[in-house]
């Protein structure tokens, strides 16, 4: 089972991914927790390039390919072997982030991105994608309270983040059997409960073709 967390910046994905990992491990599952970009030694070095606020001139295509490079390494080194062993993988962001940020946000062609993503991911798709949905203004406010944690993409204008959010909602509407949209403006415990319910439902009835 491959579960991904998606959503605008400041939606609380990282907290929820951590909580769900602990919960599933406590139930006896073999859980691998990953985050993107990064998660491997090479991927973490790529992440540092991507997140560096000094890299204001990073080209949109180069940015997208770096996200894909980090992802391909993570799939090869960690995710594929873990799924092959029958474990559960929880990933804090995945390929849908590239569609939302580089596609809907930056305006790169979605068809081209899908081809590159299929290549970078070894054609592996999540069984369940939890979109923690929040208005970008609220999300960015949460992030701004931690200035040191602000990255290069957080610094994009609000209109960019609004396109990203709209992109997520469009992707979720395209594949409702895979996506579950959760209101992330609710208190963290309520969000956690909804996340658990979605996972239990999917564990009980795996998606067709999964
Ligand atoms: P985060 O680790 O705090 O979520 O930061 C990752 C940032 O990178 C976030 O702003 C979303 C962005 N991002 C993309 O633009 N494309 C991608 O493919 C991924 C994985 C992340």
Would you kindly provide a brief summary of this structure?
This protein is α/β, with parallel strands linked by helices and about 210 residues long.
Describe this structure as you would to a colleague.
The mean pLDDT is 94. Strands 2-3-1-4-5 form a 5-stranded parallel beta sheet, sandwiched between helices. Helix 4 packs across helix 7. It has one domain (2-204): 3-Layer(aba) Sandwich (Rossmann fold). The protein starts with a strand and ends in a 6-residue tail after the last helix. It has helices spanning 13-26, 41-51, 60-84, 95-105, 110-120, 136-144, 158-174, 188-204; strands spanning 2-6, 31-35, 88-92, 128-133, 179-183. The protein has 210 residues and is an alpha/beta fold. It has 8 helices and 5 strands. The chain is globular and about 45 Å long. Helix content is 55%, strand content 12%. Thymidine-5'-phosphate binds next to helix 4.
């Amino acid at each position: 089972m491959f579960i991904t967390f998606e959503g605008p910046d400041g939606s609380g994905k990282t907290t929820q991914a951590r909580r769900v990992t602990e919960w599933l491990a406590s139930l006896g599952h073999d859980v691998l927790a990953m985050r993107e970009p990064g998660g491997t030694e090479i991927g973490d070095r790529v992440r540092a390039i991507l997140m560096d606020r000094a890299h204001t001139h990073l080209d949109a295509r180069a940015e997208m390919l770096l996200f894909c490079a980090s992802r391909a390494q993570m799939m090869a080194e960690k995710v594929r072997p873990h799924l092959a062993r029958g474990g559960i993988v929880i990933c804090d962001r995945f390929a849908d982030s590239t569609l939302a940020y580089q596609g809907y946000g930056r305006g790169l062609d979605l068809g081209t991105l899908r081809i590159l993503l299929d290549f970078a991911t070894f054609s592996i798709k999540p069984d369940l994608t939890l979109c923690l949905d929040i208005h970008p203004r609220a999300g960015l406010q949460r992030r701004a309270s931690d200035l040191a944690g602000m990255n290069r993409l957080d610094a994009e204008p609000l209109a960019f983040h609004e396109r990203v959010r709209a992109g997520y909602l469009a992707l979720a509407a395209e594949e409702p059997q895979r996506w579950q949209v959760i209101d992330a403006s609710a208190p963290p415990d309520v969000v956690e409960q909804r996340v658990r319910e979605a996972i239990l439902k999917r564990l009980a009835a795996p998606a067709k073709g999964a």
